[in-house]
Amino acid sequence: MSDDQKPPPGLDEKLSYHTSGGLEVEWLPPLPIKYYTVAHIVQNDKILLGYKKRGFGQGKYNGFGGKVEPNESSLQAAIRELEEEAGIKAPLKHIGVLLFIVNGADKTFHIDIYYAEEFEGTITESDEMKPEWFSLSTNDKDGLPPVPWDKMWDTDHCWIPLLREGKPFRGRADFDKGESGVFIPRRWWYGLLDE
Ligand SMILES: Nc1nc2c([nH]c(=O)n2[C@H]2C[C@H](O)[C@@H](COP(=O)(O)OP(=O)(O)OP(=O)(O)O)O2)c(=O)[nH]1
Predict the structure, then answer these.
(1) What's the 7 CA to ligand 1 centre distance in angstroms?
(2) Region 99-113 average pLDDT
(3) Using CB atoms within 10 A as the burial measure, which of 78, 133, 172, 176 is most buried?
């Protein structure tokens, strides 16, 4: 197996190589794990994302999520965060894991990634997120804007398309933090879970 095909430290399941980058640098050393969630509504060719108004990742578009609290499961946290941040309830399905590490930080983010094709309730803006629909298709018929990749976490383009296909995946993305506080992707790897 060539170096780029080999899963990174921390991903122990049986995976088929999907994509990678930043191979010229080493993976960052392991750090204690903290659990997070991120959830998306995906309906055919459209995806619901939120513009993050404050906190970590401010100014970026992302799915809805946050920290898993001590007395809840990851799925419970994902459902709670989706309701708090977008005002809706959805039958979320687990599809991916992203290990996210920032150079110089004190923890590894283990991010459980969820999606659902349906939801209940009215999509509502919250203090933290402004929800908006985007098109995953290159020739959208509904007049929706395309997914704003340049305003999202770098490397999300590696796995967002897998949500539409319902393909389980695992990945790792290490980032450096630039002087102006921008996050610069350092090394990343994504694989599909062997079914
Ligand atoms: N799509 C994507 N999401 C990421 C990446 N890195 C990263 O931390 N996230 C997500 C995981 C969490 O949903 C969110 C960080 O959690 P947060 O900062 O919102 O958590 P929080 O404690 O403020 O949230 P909360 O529990 O107070 O609502 O960002 C990434 O590379 N891609």
Answers:
(1) 23
(2) 97
(3) 78
**Ligand 1, from 129, 153, 184, 188: best to mutate by most atoms within 8 Å of Cβ?**
153
Question: Which residues, 6+ apart, have CB-to-CB distance to 96 below 8 Å?
Answer: 112, 113, 159, 162, 168, 169, 170, 171
Tokens of residue 178, six digits: 């630039």
Report the separation in Å between the CA atom of 64 and the middle of ligand 1, taken as the mean of its atom positions: 8
Residues 6-59 pLDDT 10s = 899 999 999 999 999 998 899 999 999 999 999 999 998 999 999 999 999 999
Local structure of residue 89 (DSSP, 8 states):
B
Q: How far apart are CA 72 and CA 13, in angstroms?
A: 24
Cα–Cα distance between 182 and 195 in angstroms, integer?
Answer: 37
Residues in the chain: 195
| Nearest atom of ligand 1 to the alpha carbon of 63 | 1
Q: Which residues line ligand 1 (CB under 6 A)?
A: 36, 38, 55-57, 62-63, 65-67, 81, 100, 109, 111, 153, 156, 173
* DSSP per residue, 118-161: --BS-----SSEEEEEEE-SSS-SS-PPBP-GGGS-TTGGGTHH
In angstroms, the Cα distances linking 180 to 55, 93, 183, 184 are: 16, 36, 9, 11
The identity of residue 192, as a single letter, is: L
